[in-house]
Amino acid sequence: MVGFSLAIIILLSTKLIQATPPGNRDDLQDQEITEIKKMMVLQSELIQSQAEMLQEYGKRIASLEKENYDLVKRTEKLQTTNDVMESRLSYLEQVDLDTRPEEDVHVTTGQSTEEIEDQENGQLQSQGHQGEAVRQADGKLPRIRRVRQATGNTLTAVGFYCRLQSPHHLLLGQHQTIDFDDVVTNVENGYDSRHGHFTAPVAGLYSFTSNVLLTSHSRLMYLVIVKNGVIVGHLYSNSGYDHGSRTVVLLLAIGDMVRVRNNNNNNNNSPSIRGGGFSTFSGFLITPYS
Q: Top-level CATH class of 159-288?
């Protein structure tokens, strides 16, 4: 604004000088110089004021960026603490289940361990519904293990397989854990469908696989497999009705926790994944270690 006014004054002064008799032009030129100097001073003050305002805005932006960074770090720390607490809670619940009194199983001298297992397997195969048979098999495995321990033959079996049944379309929030609600297999009860995570009941080398179907309503999905709050695998899809899949092999100590969660949302567009059994999460113990 000051620059525009200065240009107008110079233009008018030039016209006025040209129309003034030669004897009076010196006085007009002196007046013009004085006015131009005043306008230059005002313009300089305005520039200085604007520079100070920009500097103040820069300080405020830097302060807000630091506050945002601190909040992100605090959120990540709280998330890690929450994961550890959930892992500890699941471990304590598992210990409570394992320490409850169980019915002893005695092996008679006239029947071998293999005969007992064959008899139980035959009972399972007689069931008409496959899913129910699988669940009954999971319930009998601890008994089989105790029978083998009684005869000196140890068995270590840990594994789970679960599916997302409901809702039909699940809209994920940022960092939301996927609760695969339909538990088909859960040997040693390591998977917790209430919180969507697996807690290692024994130390060992494990394999985990997740396969998630993106619905036609979404165009981008970025999920991760997390161990104790640390990302160990990525599931990605950028097309509707496309699967994101990942398998990881991990060393776990007793109480370590593994889960599948949403990593972030693209431009606040939450991904929608398919239920109805199309999205799954599974894992099993490859070998124990002490």
A: mainly beta
